[in-house]
Amino acid sequence: MLTIDCHLHVTEVPEHAPEWWVREMYAPWGWDVGSVNGSDIVEHLDATGFDIGMIQGGDIRRTTYHPDHPADHRVFVPNDYVAHQVAQSGGRLYGVAAMDPLRDIPAAVLELERCVKELDFRLLKLVPTYHHYAPNDRRLDPLYEKCLELDIPVMIHTGWTATINSAMEFQDPIQLDDVGRRYRDLKVIVAHLGYPWVDEGVAVVAKHPNFYAEMAGWTAWGPEILAGALVKLKELGAIDRVVFGSDNTDARDLYRDARRIAREQGTEITDEEMAGIMGGTAAGLFGISA
Ligand SMILES: [Zn+2]
Fold first, then answer.
1. Which of 104, 108, 179, 177 lies closest to 137 in space, CA to CA?
2. Ligand 1 center–CA 38 separation, angstroms
3. Separation of 125 CA from ligand 1 center, angstroms?
4. pLDDT tens digits, residue range 40-64?
5. Which fold has domain 4-286?
């Protein structure tokens, strides 16, 4: 079965993002993260044992701000750059469409359509906390409707980030419930499963049959929290709707340890369930076959 990492970032520093912004994002962990291009991601996939990676850029120019660098807010990794990295990857990478919807909603809808139909991208990424909108803001409806028409899922960032100008009020995954109630057929990947609002993330995924849990970046939080989430998702019948994302980290130990902790607590995450998490479920979701 294919293994798929569905949450990876490509960024060239400083062409696509100022150094202060990258430093601020990883400040709590003191990580020194520099430029990452498509071939770096393929190396990462090889090192961590994944066949396929889904890579994303993004456009956060409108809301990026630091008082010491007021003119230095250009955070923009274009979809065409992502497509170029995909084209050079020998079939290892797939593109994720990203844009700033509030710059221009009709333009964002057209760009999504172009990314899917012309560039063969498989997913839309939205980042409400970075863009200062609620995920259930009615202005986004045309984008959700275009996802349904194109039959692609939308991955929505939920949960915390160290980026100071992100808006925490738009991080709680409960705000996705309204999206799920209004668009029952929309496939939604709850990125980061809302950490630290993990119980809310589990609840919203378990409730909506087309919602998926994804725990990218949880190497920062440790295996106990992941074990707790996996056990709850299994108890609520949603373990077959978990997809793997790494946020460019090596999460092998994290998942192995979480599985051991769950077992010690009396819940077995089976080999079949693990294979689904590591790629089987994502392959179906993104239309990727070996
Ligand atoms: Zn990410």
1. 179
2. 15
3. 10
4. 999 999 999 999 999 999 999 999 9
5. TIM Barrel (3.20.20)
Report how far ligand 1's centroid is from the alpha carbon of 55 (Å). 10
Please give the distance, rounded to the nearest whole angstrom, from the Cα atom of residue 6 to the centre of ligand 1: 10
Q: Exposed/middle/buried for 213, CB within 10 Å: 0-12, 13-18, 19+?
A: buried
Question: What is the C-alpha to C-alpha distance for residues 100 and 105, in angstroms, rounded to an integer?
Answer: 8
Q: How many angstroms is it from 127 CA to the middle of ligand 1?
A: 9
- Whether the CB-CB separation of 170 and 133 falls below 8 Å is answered with yes
Q: What spacing in Å lies between the alpha carbon of 142 and ligand 1's midpoint?
A: 24
3-state secondary structure labels for all residues of 145-186: HHHHHHCCCEEEECCCCCCCCCCHHHCCHHHHHHHHHHCCCC
Calculate how far, in angstroms, residue 82's C-alpha sits from the geometric centre of ligand 1. 15
Does the pTM surpass 0.85? The reply is: yes
Per-residue b/e over 242-271, b at no fewer than 16 CB within 10 Å? bbbbbbbbebeebbeebbebbeeeebebee
Under 8 Å between Cβ of 274 and 239: no
Distance of CA 2 to the CA centre of its chain: 19
* Predicted pLDDT at 30: 82
φ, ψ of residue 146 to 5 degrees: the values are -70, -35
Instruction: Report whether 199 contacts 233 (CB < 8 A).
Output: no
